[in-house]
Amino acid sequence: MNPIFSALSTSVFEVMSQLARETGAVNLGQGFPDDPGPLDVRRKAAEAVVDGWNQYPPMMGLPELRQATATHYQHWQGLDLDPGSEIMVTSGATEAIAGALMALVSPGDEVVLFEPMYDAYVPLVRRAGGIPKFVTLRPPHFGLSEEALAAAFSPRTKVVLFNNPLNPTATIFSATDLDLLADFCIRHDAVAICDEVWEHVVFDGRRHVPVLGRPDMRERTVKISSAGKIFSLTGWKVGLVMAAPPLMKVLAKAHQYITFTTPPNLQTAVAYGLGKEDGYFESMRADFQRSRDRFAQGLTGLGFSVLPSVGTYFLNVDIAPLGESDDVAFCRKLVMENGVAAIPVSAFYDEAAVKTVVRFCFAKRDATLDAALERLADLRRAGTAA
Fold it and tell me: What is the pTM of this model?
């Protein structure tokens, strides 16, 4: 068996979700909303199954979806994309990331990663033959620094894998951070694979700024987006990839030999959804922001130290003020004894550089969040009594 995968432990998401199922806990671990997603988009998918084409669609994606993607990102992010040569549809963003790494990384190439990070990154980099080089980000701001980047980049750096907004930290990199990263990519002739799936889930009036639009980054950036995150339909697995033609040509060859195509009915529905009025996207953000604020206020009222959340579905708490020093043990106790599933943020680091931060998903109905807060109140009362 391939040791890269055979040596991996079971994902912490699966472990915590399984414990939640076994114990009947409120599951605020895995990041998916309670809401079923916009009805009109789901109906478009259903109509396309019954009345539309159900055989192989074009490998690069339906023309209508590629055009809708170009129009959408011109409107929201000011990107000028050619739908015929610079946009591709994949079966989810993770497939897009895997394909990009396979296409761009040769054995021995170094890949810069920013931790905490999505747990798929490291095994995918290693399977592509790459050597991970880590930039360790620390709470509460999780920002970049010249010194940290200088330590990670080298003459062997081929690719940078960059997630913004950043899961699990719920932070957004500043314009200064983006310019610093772009400078290092240009200086080292590296390609930036940008996982930007949370681009629409940003709060407090913010707007996502894509690396693809930074000066001199047009020809060396792969932008990856997710319809599942845009429309809160995480099970659909429809990824959108944008890159200049020289990059896209090789990205397409990797995609051809992974999934080749993505269900056409879902593509039809996503094309429709990307053209929805601005009000849909603003309302979606407002709803998530309200849930964030509700849950943050509840946690703060219970005495938890809540870290800032400006994007994604997540809130983090620092458990050090509670006298806790092991987030894995804390989360296991939390689900087993208090009936709430959360995720230890140390699982997102290669060597658990931070061990006192715990992530909760707030993209839930009020009743779900309130039930979790009631159980967390019991935890705090027990801690106070002890």
Answer: 0.95
